[in-house]
Please model this.
Amino acid sequence: MRGLPIRATLLLLCLAVLLACPVGAAGERCKENKPARAFAAALKYPEIWVAPGEKVRVDVMLHNKGRSDETVLFKLKRVPKGWRADIRNFGTVIGGMFLAEDRETSVELVAEPKDKSRIKPGEYRFVVEAASADGAIRHTSTLVVHVSAKEKASREIELETSYPVLKGPTDARFEFSLEVRNNSAKEKLFNLSAQGPPGWDISFKPAYEQKQISSLHIKGDQSSSLSVEITPARDAGIGTYPIKVKVSSPTASAETELKVVLTGTYRIKAGTPTGLLSLSTQAGQPANISFYVRNDGSAPQREITFLSFKPENWKVEFKPDKIVNLKPGALKQVEMTITPAERALVGDYSVAVTAQGEKARSNLEFRVTVKASAAWGWIGVGIIILVLVGLGVVFRKLGRR
Model:
């Protein structure tokens, strides 16, 4: 009964929504409820702090809330002395843009000092106006820029990555994502290079593409994403390896350091010294065989356990039953005892064994031949002798007659 008020409330809310904005042909009333003309324009960040000489970039958010399309014109009503500023869209300077009904978008206010050495620490105000083509709608926003006293070098090229350190096994392939930004006003060609450990394979690829590249064209005031794929050398050991990536143009360059943390490879190998995987025994009688476990990887293997898949009522035992730690390249011998069931029939059987390591495993399959007991052989010989003796006695009696 407690759920009834909640269901009733939800039903009333649904009815309210349907009545406020009915679907189908009647849904046109919702559109009529919107104003004939209305759009919003505002700075995403009305106040920011920058270092001397640093370029300012702030988004201007736009949303057409009216029933008609609009052409929005931009105007910088106020620019502080010693600064230059403009409105841009994907790096292109614009004075206005078409804003369709219900559309949400953004443009960018970009400002920078004309002479960086003359900009003193303090507060600078920029005023941006977004107006309709006929001037009937106007929105004015103010950006306050606080220039700090601490100097920050302005770079023509910026190179950034969100994940500079990746970790994994030696046989893995590592892919870093880099963002290269051209802060100059002109399109430039950037050369790509990397320096890593000997024997490592390092290549550059455009984002979401497979072709390898060695250079990159980037337009002025725009950025481009690329991938750095790194394949370690096969014999690389456990450890942290730095990779230096450099992006350069004829006039500037930028570097960043990536790090690959190798945890090693995880491989184990199980087998017998002779390569034979067969043994013989009798029903209910144990049979012994030894096999080895070797760490063929570059990382230690801990807590190696053994599993067996055997016929019903059979017993399989291992000595030792667990290898606590096996260093790279090390080998450990294991004694295995297989005991068939008491009523096992004569024939060949399969016993599978798995050596389960920390992050690797190795499988073996043994063929076990169950033979008849020697006692049955002697019983058979005795029966044959008795039959022969009986036949002799019969022949003698028949010969006398």
